[in-house]
Input
Amino acid sequence: AIPRMLLTDSQINNVAKSYIQDENFSSLGNDLSMWKFYNLLTGSNKSSYIDSFLDRAYNATELVTGIAAALHGDERYQWFLS
Output
């Protein structure tokens, strides 16, 4: 019962690259806020085709809110933190 993650492997690669290099949302060496994480996910989603863009954008919101809840004890998205 792992929650869906609709971003592709290349988009996750872009998230990791932006985590280090993005001048606005990088957090290497600092605390990564859920807002910055959300912006990294939606930034990588810009490369999606129009037919999957909205689904992936909504899924990015679900992931960030789910991971934020997991940080506070919710077990549904705990898999992403383990």
The chain has a mean pLDDT of 88.
